[in-house]
Design a protein that fits this description.
alpha/beta; eight-stranded mixed beta sheet; four-stranded antiparallel beta sheet; 16 helices; 16 strands; 43% helix
Length: 460
């Protein structure tokens, strides 16, 4: 179970106790709470800190913790004027809630896009972060806008690019947003796979672009329909995940690679190649990125460390040639100048360390085992659900629900039973061809994966 679950349970109990008391009443001592609830002193400290942040209690060093005075309810304010000032929303608020809402840490997590804590190289990152923070100029010397030269070189080498072609960005999502804003104009069309990464759809809409779907199948995006979409819409960019696409796990077939590049060249357009799962290959070597076959600057390549390392290592790289690279760098400089130097230095140390390859080997073995556990549980407990494929990499299983199902309603019912799953509908730009669920095997233990599917079976 999530490491925060014991903290959450204690917070809930102490909140109830504080609510029933009077302002000024003293809560039991840390020693008494440890004995009463069977938790550690650290758990008690964290629980009390959360309650203090909520304003429920007041901690007085040397005296103890006391119930805080009741806060008066603020007068209701009139914010109706904002409806007119804000104009039309560019992002569906329902979908955005699905992107940003935080679930109860005690729930079984079959959703999410980051490694479970036990799979992250946290000790190495902590030590590297401490060393980076102590380096001369770590805080006083700004980073170059495009990033530290040694980090740019580390990202360039695996894809056969020059270091000058690399722009360091604060995470893959930032890279998607930057590329869409820098290389298109408001009101234009951007093509996306269908289904696709839901946050890419949101990024396009926030940039005032019109996402248009291009169908995919087991071999990735269909080149014939991609060419037709370019001709029909006049789009100048397509967002693709050729390797272990989110959510389907599809890999663009070898035969289609050239056909996709030809369609893009004929349209005079860009591919935004999101290679987020490059390091997450589980059973075979991942095919080379499309940028390796591109000589004329049509492919803008994106890769990130957040997925294979840790969510808070917000370091990613855009790789582009020619005027596109200049425009991307300029856009980054205007948006937030640069990625913090200490974070970049941590990334350099991680990539260049022998510990990185050891981490990747162990992580892949663990993910492969968890994928197999989740696949076995789905096949055993959800016979009415179609597993569209067993992915060779990435984080996700893409499941088709029986005809007549409602994925949004199913996900809501699952949440009420403390199982968090991803409905498929937000992964589609337009009407989906069926009802789907996205389950992840990266964010939970094998036992939790099995138990989560058992609970889902009870809802079918």
């Amino acid at each position: 179970m999530n490491n925060d679950s014991s903290v959450v349970r204690l917070v809930n109990r102490l909140r109830t106790e504080a609510s029933s008391g009077q302002p000024g009443d003293q809560l039991p001592s840390t020693r008494s709470l440890v004995a009463a609830y069977g938790v550690s002193p650290v758990t008690v400290s964290r629980a009390l800190a959360r309650l203090a942040a909520e304003g429920m209690v007041i901690a007085e060093p040397g005296r103890g913790t006391f119930v805080a005075p009741r806060r008066s309810v603020a007068a209701v304010q009139d914010v109706g004027w904002q409806t007119i000032a804000l104009c039309d929303a560019r992002v569906n608020s329902t979908d955005l809630h699905a992107l940003t809402s935080q679930s109860d840490p005690a729930s079984l997590q079959l959703v999410g896009g980051y490694l479970a804590e036990d799979l992250q190289p946290t000790r190495f990152l902590a030590a590297a972060g401490a060393r980076a923070a102590r380096r001369p100029g770590a805080w006083s010397k700004p980073s170059p806008h495009a990033g530290l030269p040694e980090l740019r070189a580390s990202f360039a080498a695996p894809v056969g690019a020059e270091p000058d072609d690399v722009i360091i960005v604060p995470g893959g999502q930032s890279g998607i947003s930057t590329a869409m804003r820098a290389l298109t104009s408001p009101g234009q069309t951007v093509l996306v796979e269908s289904p696709t990464y839901m946050r890419a759809i949101a990024a396009a809409r926030v940039a005032d672009l019109r996402p248009v779907a291009v169908p995919t199948d087991a071999d990735g995006v269909r080149p014939d329909l991609l060419a037709e979409a370019f001709a029909r819409t006049g789009a100048r960019m397509v967002y693709l995940q050729p390797t272990y696409a989110n959510p389907t796990g599809a890999v663009l077939s070898a035969q289609r690679r050239g056909e996709v590049l030809d369609a893009v060249r004929d349209a005079g357009a860009f591919i935004l190649e999101d290679d987020w799962a490059r390091q997450l290959s589980l059973t075979r070597t991942a095919p080379p990125p499309l940028i390796r076959d591109d000589t004329d600057g049509h492919v803008v390549y994106l890769t990130s460390l957040s997925k294979p390392a840790a969510p808070n290592l917000r370091v990613a790289a855009l790789v582009a040639k020619g005027p596109a690279a200049v425009r991307l760098t300029a856009t980054r400089a205007v948006e937030d100048l640069f990625v913090a130097r200490p974070l970049q230095e941590v990334a350099v140390e991680l990539i260049e360390s022998p510990a990185w390859s050891r981490h990747l080997t162990g992580m892949r073995a663990a993910l492969r085992a968890r994928r197999d556990v989740l696949v076995a549980a789905v096949r055993e407990h959800l016979p009415g659900v179609t597993l569209t494929r067993v992915p060779d990499g990435g984080f996700y299983l893409w499941l088709r629900l029986p005809q007549g199902s409602d994925d949004l309603e199913f996900a809501a019912r699952a949440r009420r039973h403390d199982v968090i799953v991803g409905p498929g509908r937000p992964c589609f730009v337009s009407e989906p061809p069926g009802c789907y669920l996205r389950l992840t095997y990266c964010s939970a233990t094998p036992a939790e994966l099995t138990e989560g599917v058992r609970r889902l079976a009870a809802l079918c």
